[in-house]
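Form 7-S
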Amino acid sequence: RILRSPVYHGMLSRYFNQVLVQIPDTIISEADRLLNKSMAHPEMFRYTLWFLANNAERSNIMGMDAVFVHLADQYYMKGKAHWMTQEGLDRISERAERLRPLLIGSIAPDIRVFSPDGSTVSLHDTDALYLILYFWDSECSFCKEETPALKSVYEQFRDQQVKVFAMNTEANRNSWLSAINRYGLGWINVNDAENRSGYREKYDIYSIPVIYLLNSKKEIIAKHIGA
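Output:
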């Protein structure tokens, strides 16, 4: 009865989103503890695992994708979610593999893309104390707000070894070059209209703008944040 009423869901939501400190390691530890207890009843285990995975995947708190990857590895991909179809398991596995290289603390995937003059530029060859990786499009309405804001941040910190690696995502080269001139973007401007570098898959780009913050070792220290 508890499972089929709002009681259990509400308790899970309150505990994992409001009571616990919102740090991935803490959430993972408590998720494992609760899942271990819930295994006493198959339906409780099924619902608890579904809630935790869904809650982590949809979280607006940075870094919670590590919880989803952990649950995928330890439960879904180890055959404990026996109710799942192979198609469902493949979806979860694919999602976890896409997120894994992008977890906080991971080395950002390298991409070799193209500057306005046609020469190739490597993300990993760009030296900076902090490197802001910015995915944008000149026609994107949100990017039209974010680009000037990010430019202001860049101008404030550019003398402190902060650089911007602005990865333009649009296919129209002229629109991109026009936007560089219009905004007066003096940072590192690059584009890959045909996605030859695989940046969309490597950085899970399905909407823009997207900002990643990397340290001098190219480790991801923040992501999906605003200017």
